[in-house]
Amino acid sequence: MPYPLDAAAVRTWCGLALEALGRERERIDAINVYPVADGDTGTNLYLTLESAARAVEAAFDGHASAGTAPALADAIGAMAHGALIGARGNSGTILAQLLRGMTQVLAVAPDAGPGSADALRRALRCAAAAAYEAVAHPVEGTVLSVATAAADAAERAVAETAETAEPAEVARAAHRGANDALQATPGQLAVLGRAGVVDAGGCGLVALLGALAAALSGEVSAAPVAIRADAPLPEAAGCGVPGREGPGADGCADPHAGGPAFEVIYLLEAGDAPVARLRARLDRLGDSLVVVGGDGLWHVHVHVDDAGAAVEAGIEAGRPYRIRITHFGGTTRAEEPALAARAVVTVVPGTGLAGLCAQAGATPVPVRPGEPPASGELVQAIRQARAREVMLLPNDPELRHTAAAAAEQARTEGVRVALIPTRSAVQGLAALAVHEPGRSFDEDMVAMTAAAGATRYAELAVAERQSWTMAGVCQAGDVLGLIDGDVAVIGPDLARTAMTVLDRMLSAGGEMVTLVLGADVPDSLAERLERHVREHHLAVDTVVYEGGEYAAPLLIGVE
Question: What's the predicted TM-score (pTM) here?
Answer without folding.
Answer: 0.58
